């Protein structure tokens, strides 16, 4: 089921890693619902096009953790996609960029706020299993 949902989402690969671009309510629900029944780590990356550290962090890290799923939410595009994605950002208190929220089975288990690559890697390693 997880792989079927992921096939229909806008996504890009970077070496071995996968990043899902969340651009609609349907995409978010597909990712969130499939991850609720999976033991995989979901890392939500709240980002913006103008945030250089946001993009560089993900590009450097995602390929190292192919067992995790990275979902990107571009906060600049939130208005384009309506109130739903604004509510996603608000729910996870993504007020500072970059912000990385870690979920397992639909529950928040950790987060990293700011450009802290060592902390990000440490927490992904800690929670990926």
From TrEMBL:
**Thioredoxin domain location, by residue?**
36-125
Which segments of the protein form a coiled coil according to its record? none
Q: Which residues form the signal peptide?
A: none
Say which domain of life the source belongs to.
Eukaryota
Which Pfam families does the record cross-reference, listed alphabetically? Thioredoxin
Name it.
Answer: Thioredoxin domain-containing protein
Query: The organism's lineage?
Result: Eukaryota, Viridiplantae, Streptophyta, Embryophyta, Tracheophyta
